[in-house]
Fold this sequence. Notes:
The structure is a single chain. This protein is an alpha+beta fold and about 575 residues long. About 35% of the residues lie in helices and about 35% in strands. The chain folds into 4 domains: about 5-100, Beta-Lactamase, CATH 3.30.450; about 105-205, PAS domain (Beta-Lactamase); about 210-300, Beta-Lactamase (2-Layer Sandwich), CATH 3.30.450; about 325-520, 2-Layer Sandwich (Alpha-Beta Plaits). It has 18 helices and 25 strands. A hairpin with a 4-residue loop joins strand 1 and strand 2. The protein is globular.
Amino acid sequence: MSQKNSQLIKILEKFPDQNPNPVLRFSEQGALMYYNESSKNIVDEWRIKLNEKPDQKILDNFLFLKKDYSMNTFEVIAKNKTYRLKAVYVEEINCINLYGSDITAKKVIDKFPDQNPNPVMRVSREGKLTYFNDASSRIIQHYDLALGQLISGPLVDLIGKTAITKDIANGEITVGKKSYLVYLVPVPEFDFIIIYGSDITANKLVNKFPDQNPNPVMRFNREMQLQYFNDASNYIIENWKIGINENIPDDIIANLENQNSPLLHNMEIEIGERTYYFNIVEIGEFDFFLLYGTDITDAKDKEMILTKLSKYFSPQVYSSIFTGELDVNISTNRKNLTVFFSDIKGFTTITEKLEPEKLTEFITHYLTEMTDIAITYGGTVDKYIGDAIMIFFGDPTTKGLREDAISCVSMALKMQEKLKLIRKKWKSFGITEILDVRMGIHTDVCTVGNFGSKDRLDYTVLGNGVNLASRLENSAKPNEILISENTYNIIRKDINCKYVNEIKVKGKSHPIKTFQVQDLILSQGEKSTIDYETDGFSLMLDKEQIKNKREIIGYLKKSIDHLKH
């Protein structure tokens, strides 16, 4: 056995703890035996621990493998990521291994309908065509389909099956001399089905004829010596500087070693100025490996662009755009929204005392902490105006008017808690001014959607409801959450509030009653937190988080004695 082959075996024998991709192991009965750190999202999503079984629906994807020693591939969604899992039965240890890879970016790119080079169609629950992109034109013309009309042809049965089962279905259709693989994905929240198509004509041919395959195909023996390559592999072969009967380069061995991968089934490698995704298949009957490559350079570039673009959108808006739920054109709707404004009191004075670098560091830290809380509670971050933040609840997703309002006010309370910790951070910036933040919240019917020109759009909210929320923030005292009567009537059973006064608002014929938010109403009737602050004194107590009661009681007694004297 050659030295390079020995190196390869060592690579394959490495334990999967450090694998950047998910690796899970199940017993023949379906109990979880092992999972690495990269699998934690999946394990959490399945709500299982070691020696526990996931739901039967999950087990159906791989438990059958113990009978026929086959493999199966399926997808799961966990923590807003999509994973492709390959299940393999390991006879030697009587278990089933799952090997995963994160395909989120690919799924996102595939879902962008208008620019998608593959067919994308949308069908109502009744079977009427409601949308199709340019790549679908061949299918539309072949089956004489039209918007607003019932689907005909071989898709009818698949649509009926999907509508009844509400599960993803797939099938193959023929359009002239072309073959398409179609996936039907039900979206029950909006009562429609999305059809994703892929032209597999070439794939069906090249699988039979590797010489004509537009993707790289190579064959290696067990000593990792090149035995065959097609024309599409020329770029790789030239960069590797190898020929027939020559070994794989040492730097490729090192690349594999750095992956800490126990298997050689798939990998991503940069070769020259291009990036390839490789699948390596062992053909045991003939004692060689087949390497199938895909040039993903363009996909990686798109992934980088998408990552950069995501920084300019609220997560909800970003997701709605790239799933096709939100059209990229000028369009608006009237909806019940809860609008939030916050602002740092005396921020202009603070900025005058700070160097630009320190100011940038400070405001970035503050806005990041507040935004993280907003996203956690499901808010859509509309914009930053210097230190001011505008957030709204109820679009593009909503939990209902009451739940949206409760989430918004709960978010504001959480922000108040976080501000106490941020104030400590201020001292490290050398800021002596007190961090005072005013917050205003109002619930009303607003106009929401894409505003702007043909070349520049802004997804935002307009209307008197927005103006009133802003006015409430301006009227709030430092570190006060001031809400309107509209919001109060919705959340009063869940959140303690105190009447403040009435304010006059431009455009309103009657004064607006305002209320100060105090704290959540706990179901057990007992507050678990105490939050009080005045000049020279600050107290924040959370009983649920306390682990050293005796020590805290001692400090409180000392503080009381100190105050008495």
